[in-house]
Amino acid sequence: QVQLQESGPGLVKPSQTLSLTCTVSRDSITTNLYYWTWIRQPPGKGLEWMGAVDYSGSTGYSPSLRSRTSISRDTSKNQFTLRLSSVTPEDTAVYYCARDQGGGRLDYWGQGTQVTVSS
How distant, in Å, are the alpha carbons of 34, 49, 61 from that of 31? Predict the structure, then answer.
């Protein structure tokens, strides 16, 4: 079974850059036609798709976050990384990485990691 695990700091100060890494096991981020995705859920709100990197390294971002978001990958470690710049308390959320088969069919998820933006 494919496994995804998020890692990164749980507390980030306003105006700084949030950086989270997703480590994938039992699948390769460079094979198959999958999209490796970041999703977040702010407290009391629904899930928000942030962006994804596909098997070829191409990326796509939510229009509302595009100016602050970057997703990269390290194929040697089978990891992909989210960077969100200029964070504010509104970026406080549980952040998830997930595998998307395409068309929003998310079949494997990480357990999620809480990130709080606070001074």
Answer: 8, 22, 21
Helix, strand, coil percent content, the chain, rounded in steps of 5: 5, 50, 45
What is the chain's pLDDT, residue by residue, as a tens digit (119 residues)? 999 999 999 999 999 999 999 999 999 999 778 999 999 999 999 999 999 999 999 999 999 999 999 999 999 999 999 999 999 999 999 999 999 998 889 999 999 999 999 99
Location of structure tokens 């198959």: 32
Residue 16's Cβ-count burial label (10 Å; 0-12, 13-18, 19+) is middle
